[in-house]
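Worked problem 6 (solution included).
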Amino acid sequence: MRLTLDTLLLTVAEVIRNCGCEDGCPSCVGPAIPASAMTDLDSAVRGRIPNKQAAQFLLDTLLKRTRNR
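Solution. The predicted structure is:
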């Protein structure tokens, strides 16, 4: 099976949409601490979980663009 960008984006959007959390969690939008923050003790993103609504918005925008090609 060949995985296309559209299929990948749709799958990720479904994972986020079906997650039971309200704001975002490591299961749907990613880990709270990105790998780059592990070595940077002063990182402003340390301990912040990515936003679920923002992730869904970005995916929806990307999906619209891939369909308009």
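Discussion: The CA atoms of residues 24 and 40 lie 23 Å apart.
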